[in-house]
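Input record, target 12 of the design panel.
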């Protein structure tokens, strides 16, 4: 989709309805400061905020209420459910996936490859261990909080980097998860999304009181950029449906606005003058050309086909002729003025079918 309205938001956020430490009002203010258009709140095993009528616009920020299901493993981020009675079924997550689908919702596997850190939370972690599940919409491929929890082996080291390079531990989603994502996409469309697992945890360091990973900081990191055909409605219910429909279809990309603002990235395919969006299939019955635009000249465009890097370019805009069917996605790495290039933007896939 070449011409599109772009809206950025942040998904996978915890509020004071579960173990987060911010009210809807505070979270919306932090989102407005970061320039976001929407936030997907996903408190653990509750839709309490919906019941209290907290969903809707706070100024220009659309606050949406989803939930994170399951307790000790197989966390499932669900949106689009207005009521729920199965909040946890850790050993058989298909039950929660089916329950969400039956209520008209959709969802994503959360931090599926999380590993424990012996120095944090007694080594507790919350990965996925059931890969026979079906019927889910996508998977979280970049989770800032989860990467941070895995990164450090000493408390002091964590504290050092918290102050001197807070972005460092979450700066790469990891090869393992990208490989898994690409593998799953060869079977069927699995949409990728990013989150921060924002909690804004209060902590004390001697006499100092601080909030670890404030919403203000996290909302400037891994964001979700939706491409809509029409402007986002001022009516909260209509706007919710617009956001959810893009999230279901995969017509969005994720990126780190911390490295450089992502707005303006585009990835779509053209066939016979027809444009095909991220998340869509296109049949290879006549020539297909992928179009990629980087928002900045410091980007390196990478085209991935069936999990393999097939093309790299320093150009800001390019057309890539598809020679064989496959699952295609685009990445952009950002070249800072000094230092190595870092992962910046990930598109959702376009599947070119036989
Ligand atoms: Zn979780
Ligand atoms: Zn979470």
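The sequence produced for target 12 reads:
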């Amino acid at each position: 989709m070449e011409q599109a309205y772009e809206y950025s938001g942040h998904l996978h956020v915890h509020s004071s309805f579960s173990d987060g430490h911010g009210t809807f009002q505070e979270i919306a203010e932090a989102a407005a400061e970061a320039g976001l258009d929407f936030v997907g709140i996903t408190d653990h095993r509750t839709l309490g905020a919906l019941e209290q009528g907290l969903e809707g616009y706070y100024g220009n920020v659309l606050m949406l209420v989803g939930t994170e299901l399951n307790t000790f493993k197989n966390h499932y981020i669900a949106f689009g459910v207005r009521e729920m009675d199965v909040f946890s079924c850790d050993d058989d997550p298909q039950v929660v996936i089916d329950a969400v689908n039956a209520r008209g919702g959709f969802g994503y596997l959360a931090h599926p490859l999380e590993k424990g850190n012996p120095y944090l939370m007694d080594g507790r972690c919350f990965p996925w261990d059931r890969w026979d599940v079906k019927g889910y919409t996508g998977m979280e491929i970049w989770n800032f909080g989860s990467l941070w929890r895995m990164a450090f082996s000493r408390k002091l080291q964590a504290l050092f980097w918290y102050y001197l390079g807070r972005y460092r531990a979450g700066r790469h989603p990891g090869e393992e998860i990208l490989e898994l994502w690409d593998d799953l996409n060869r079977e069927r469309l699995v949409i990728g999304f990013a989150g921060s697992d924002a909690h804004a945890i209060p902590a004390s360091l001697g006499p100092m009181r601080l909030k670890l990973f404030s919403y203000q900081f996290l909302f400037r990191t891994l964001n979700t950029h939706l491409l809509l055909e029409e402007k986002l409605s001022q009516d909260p219910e209509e706007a919710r449906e617009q956001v959810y429909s893009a999230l279901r279809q995969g017509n969005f990309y994720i990126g780190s606005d911390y490295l450089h603002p992502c707005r303006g990235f585009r990835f779509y395919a053209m066939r016979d003058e027809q444009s095909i969006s991220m998340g869509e299939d296109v049949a290879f019955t006549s020539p297909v050309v992928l179009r990629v635009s980087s928002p900045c000249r410091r980007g390196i465009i990478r085209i991935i086909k069936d999990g393999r890097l097939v093309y790299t370019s320093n150009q800001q805009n390019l057309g890539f002729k598809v020679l064989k069917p496959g699952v295609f996605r685009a990445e952009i790495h950002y070249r800072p003025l000094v230092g190595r290039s870092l992962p910046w933007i990930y598109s959702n896939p376009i599947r070119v079918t036989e």
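Residues 5-256 form a domain with the TIM Barrel fold (CATH 3.20.20.140).
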